[in-house]
Design brief:
alpha/beta, 3 domains, five-stranded mixed sheet, 11 helices
Length: about 350
Amino acid sequence: NITRKDEKYVFSIVMKRQTYECPECHSSHVNIKANKSKKLVGAQFNNCPSIYMIHFKRLCCRDCGSSFYDHVPLADETTKIARVTQLHILEDLKPFNSVFASVARKYDISTTKVISLFDENVQVKRHPLPRILLIDEFYFQRHSQQKYAFVMMNFENKVIVDIIKSRWQNVLSDYFYSIDAEKGKGEKREKEKVEFVCSDLYEPYRSIIATYFKNATYLVDHFHVVKLVNDQLNNTRKREMRKHSYARQSKEYRLLKFRYKLLMQYGPTVDIETYRFDSILGCHCVNKTVLDEILSISDDIKAFYDVKEAFMALDAIDEKSAAEHDLEKELDEIIKRFHQ
């Protein structure tokens, strides 16, 4: 029987009476003790969720006294989702852009159930380690003890190599140790094929790379180097700003507090054409004029800004013009200036 209730279709299914056999002693002398029912999550019907209400029997063997239930072929005894529904859910999760929550809404079940079903049935194999390996973390969930998951990607084809549940050093160490663990002495080890590993400045990553990728060159991600330089410049700016905190309405204090973003910009990108009225300077001027006023406040800020600009200029050199520069020597000079 099929009925519709609360935007769902309810299929009432009665198991056909048959000759029963005891699973313990295989006797056919079986009595019906009670009628039972079980609710299962059904497949979609007419673009609506559905429920299978299965009516079956509790049976008792007259010979050995054992009790058992009528066989329900639509689902296992321990699950509340029909087998056909499980297949539909897994099929809906195949597209790379599918989301657990949207699939859960489609079948009117919890997102947790969909995730559990996926974890039980899908085991994604790790891709081979690439020549250029990118590693990073992403925020997973705030209620978990391990809030950040670890991800590895192939730089050349942009394919995710693997995702690991935690970025903790002991977890990563066990993971990378297990790779090549069963290789023979003469065989080429997979980790030895990795030529470059790129990550941020997170200390456990540096330790892992040094331990397990001894043949690879360690690359620091461009974004994090630039951020580190800008953070140090910003610390210098704050230190100078505190020196003028006794006069918070002064031009120096207000420029350092409200116009500091110009310090973080790469010099050639600072606007030198558009005139706007600046309330702190009290006149119409371009951003370059405001920047020059900030740099005139402190020799420390000016010195740090100049070395930051030298680094950004080095970082902006493209592959075509790299041959015209002695990059290693120029970088060493910039590092010396940073120390100073």
